[in-house]
Amino acid sequence: MITAEHIDAGYSGNTVLRDVNFTLSPGSLNVLIGANGSGKSTLLRTITGAAAPLAGRILLDGKDISSYGRRELARRLAVVFTDRNGGGDLTVEECVAMGRYAYNGPFSRNSDSDKALVAKAIADVGLVDKAHRHLGTLSDGERQKAMIARALAQQTPLIILDEPSAFLDVAGRQDIMRLLRQLADSGHAVLISTHDIAPAIAAADNLMVVDPASRTLCCGSKADVIAKGALDRAFPSLSFDASRGDFVYRSLS
Amino acid sequence: MRTATVYIIITALIALLLPLGLTVGGVELSLATVADALTDGSDPVARYIVVENRLPALLTALIAGAALSVAGLLMQTCFNNPLAGPSIMGISSGSSLGVALVIMLVGGAAGLWGNVAVIAGALAGALAVLALLSLVSLVVRSADALFIVGILLGYLASSVITLLSFFSTDSAVHSYVVWGLGTFASVGLERLPALAILSALLLAGSALYIRSLNAMLMGERFAANVGISVRRVRTGLLFLSGALTAVVTAWCGPIGFIGLVVPHVARIALHSSNHAKVLPVTALCGALTGLLCQIISVAPMLSKGGAIPINAITPVLGVPVIIYVLLNRRRLLYFS
């Protein structure tokens, strides 16, 4: 379980979000929503320990996140990014197997139980028939599933995904969101940041919405956050239609 | 299956070229004469040529080729840049500067102490560039920026070498130019063990990083998230690649292109960037390339009894590979 206590997130002394408080509980799908440049990525960097909070603290299983070593942290928290840097000629299986690195030394080979976990993770995301395919030959959606499988192989209670449905078509987005819902239902605490509002809200248990005016985060159950009007404040040029679960344009002019 | 085939082909080629290399040179020897020289040595001249001259040069070529290629592989993955290599990152230039200082300021490379001074100069120069790069890596987080700093340090070293050459005597400049041509033949039997042991230790050290290298392929954020300490790994890789380059440069002069080209050949042959496969195949393929360069360098029809500088051969072998890689960027999956 991860808890943010009165954190200010930012960089080089510039506060982007202030006094953020939330708890991500096991079995919950949490969706972070905000406009471009509102601080979502900065907040994710802070939550994942990649950047220190400017104030407050983040507790992971009751301990300050900064007190964890890299490998310890990797056993508790998996992060899935959308960036494609290379490794296109690694197979899905080789990539997913990296999820076991935090459990093994530099020379140790993956044990049979590691291999079984990798196979299960690949099966869970539905890529069994593509396990030996190179990452570079996969569609964007399949690649994203491979990255999620790596996070599953990491066996962490908490999985954070930065824009998991970016670059995907409508069916691919639906597919990923269904998969994330299944992860939450199987006991993981899942946090995603996304611009793909409607399917994310449909699947979410909790929302975390950035208010750009006050630079604060409105967190709570889906119904509470919608009732507070946080989504309307996040995108002032739009209005949120709770009955449709999506935004409607106020004006095109 | 593919990996096994690649291993078998490269090993077979090395096994074929090594004895062939012992027959090739200013004095052509038959395989029977070579075998005789290696066993009972009834012909002292043939024994001298084979054991004291050709064998050390070929073994040096094997070792230097493997070391430079692995150095290039480590750099390309560390900087996520397919054009990274020991001769591009300023480390070879640092070595060259160290040797230039020894030859042009201290006074030459003749004799035992001259040789020791040249090796010390090459090592010190490479380590100085490495130390600077390591210091910069503490401040600069971006691998791209660090890569550019390496290139700039190389230019700075070259600039100082040009200045030194301008103020030096003709004979000192000549000595430096000869060293800079690159040769595997200057390492005799007596110096070969030191080169072999140092290279073996550094290559073994590189194997410790296989998992980290694989994670780095996927990007630094990915690597950090699977438990890799990116900064520590990058410093380790910089040290290993720099030390491998420095050792070879100290003994053989600055050898270009092998470190840049061979990792690409290994990846293309294996259809994989998985370092558990690529690292050993790069070492083997580099050894084969070194061997090939040495044989071409002394082939009688080309060298007319002398030896063509290694740096005149490596670009001829390397440039077509790099052009192929650049033209096939989309097809070669390791870019995506």
What does this structure look like?
The complex is a heterodimer of chains A (253) and B (336). Chain A is of the alpha/beta class and 253 residues long. Chain A has two domains: 1-76 and 157-165 and 179-253, P-loop containing nucleotide triphosphate hydrolases (Rossmann fold, 3-Layer(aba) Sandwich); 84-155, no CATH class. Helices cover 32% and strands 27% of the residues of chain A. Chain A has helices at 40-47, 70-74, 92-97, 112-124, 140-153, 170-185, 197-203, 222-227, 230-234, and strands at 2-11, 14-24, 29-33, 55-60, 63-64, 77-80, 158-162, 189-193, 206-211, 216-221, 238-241, 246-249. Chain A has a six-stranded mixed beta sheet, with helices on both faces. The longest helix of chain A has 16 residues, at 170-185. Chain A is globular. Chain A starts with a strand and ends with a strand. The model of chain B has no long low-confidence stretch (mean pLDDT 88). With 336 residues, chain B is mostly helical. Chain B has one domain (2-327): ABC transporter involved in vitamin B12 uptake, BtuC (Orthogonal Bundle). The two termini of chain B are 24 Å apart. Chain B has 15 helices and no strands. Classes of the chains: A alpha/beta (253), B mainly alpha (336). The interface between A and B is medium-sized, with 35 and 30 residues.
